[in-house]
């Protein structure tokens, strides 16, 4: 579709400019129209690396490849110094940087680095509770028993490590965490909790909650998006039909609640008025996740048309109403992403993960470039 090509060309040009703007630093979220940069110490820094690799695969331009390779060296240094890796987002960091390099170039050093990163994620497994701890050190009184739905997107790092080593514990931990997430984060009406708490000693379920959603019982749209894509990826690796069913359920819930312009607000339960914040990144993640989900559905699946049509509507809504096409000074690809509305942190700004998933969805539709969550067959 010509619309996708034009959006991709805009992303390529913007990324070329951003390579010069950002230098050796990494974009996170924006403030007053400028990306806040860091020295590779945020959970989001893999998304910039992923954007560079996607641009290189799509265009073949060595400028993107050189910049992407430099980011992998930065991630090698980060792992060596263990700089701010006391969280579960290791998959976001290393799947889109070193694993991407392995997938594209077959670089053995990149493969080894990615396996080391998988071991860092494994260190967050809490055997007593049977889950991967999201944030903070083991035994932390606030977060020691907490899982969050985002972690489903980090599990592919462990599945991939199992495929490359044959060590069953990688897959066992990923499956156990996916099962626990399905049981406790997904509600009976197909909505989702952002987080859930367990007793650290016994693993007994305590309660659902939120960190960035409207209320503990509401449905944060980005959390629902993580679930759609994350369960689809767990299905790809395990072929457990329950994961596929769960991804579909979450996706249908999301699409049935699209607003008039097809790009969601930041929470499905928040009151809608002229000041209500959007989250374009939630729609971008969902579009990319449904593209993955569709690859696992039969042509005769009764939900296929709903899902494919909703994905197309979401992506067209982003391109037509939220892309920065025609804004030469813009640094991001999408307007109106939200990091933390409740916390007042970049509630209506560029967010680098939104840019990544938007571009991933576009290049997959246009050229079949699948992203870096699994090996290409």
TrEMBL record:
Keywords attached to this entry: Hydrolase
InterPro entries reported in the protein's UniProt record: 6-hairpin_glycosidase_sf, 6hp_glycosidase-like_sf, Glyco_hydro_88, UG_Glycosaminoglycan_Hydrolase
Binding of substrate, residues: 89, 150, 208, 210, 222, 226, 340
Signal peptide: none
A Pfam family it matches: Glyco_hydro_88
Protein's UniProt keywords contain Hydrolase: yes
GO BP: polysaccharide catabolic process
Molecular function terms, GO-annotated: chondroitin hydrolase activity
Active site, renumbered: 89 (nucleophile), 150 (proton donor)
SUPFAM superfamilies listed in its UniProt record: Six-hairpin glycosidases
Record carries keyword Hydrolase: yes
Family: Belongs to the glycosyl hydrolase 88 family.
Record protein name field: Glucuronyl hydrolase
Organism: Paenibacillus foliorum
